[in-house]
Amino acid sequence: MKTVKTTFAILIIAALTMSFVNPNEWYLFEEAGCTIQFPDKPDSQVQTLNTEIGDLQMNINYV
């Protein structure tokens, strides 16, 4: 029972700590009708995939 209480306390502390992150410091990424917040400006990469239904463009954004 002691480990359950300890684990629960750690989870509560982690959740409270993450709630104090200022979202104004995040980078707002908007593309193709989609809006995502990243902790920093993401790098972008475009790949073309050959599939049975034709070529598909895959946009990858990562930090």
Task: Describe the protein's architecture and organization.
The protein has 63 residues and is α+β, with helices and mostly antiparallel strands. The chain has a domain at 25-63. Helix content is 27%, strand content 44%. The protein contains one helix and four strands. Strands 1-2 form a two-stranded antiparallel sheet. A two-stranded antiparallel ribbon has the order 3-4. The longest helix is centred in the first third of the chain and has 17 residues, at 2-18. The mean pLDDT is 85.
Kindly summarize this structure in a few lines.
The chain is α+β, with helices and mostly antiparallel strands and 63 residues long. The chain is 27% helix and 44% strand.
- The helix/strand order is HEEEE
- Radius of gyration equals 20 Å
The main β sheet shows up as: 2 strands, antiparallel
Low-confidence spans: none
Characteristic terms for this protein:
two-stranded antiparallel ribbon, 44% strand, 4 strands, 1 helix, alpha+beta, 63 residues
Q: Topology, please?
A:
Blueprint: H1 2-18, E1 27-31, E2 34-38, E3 43-51, E4 54-62
Antiparallel strand pairs: 1-2, 3-4
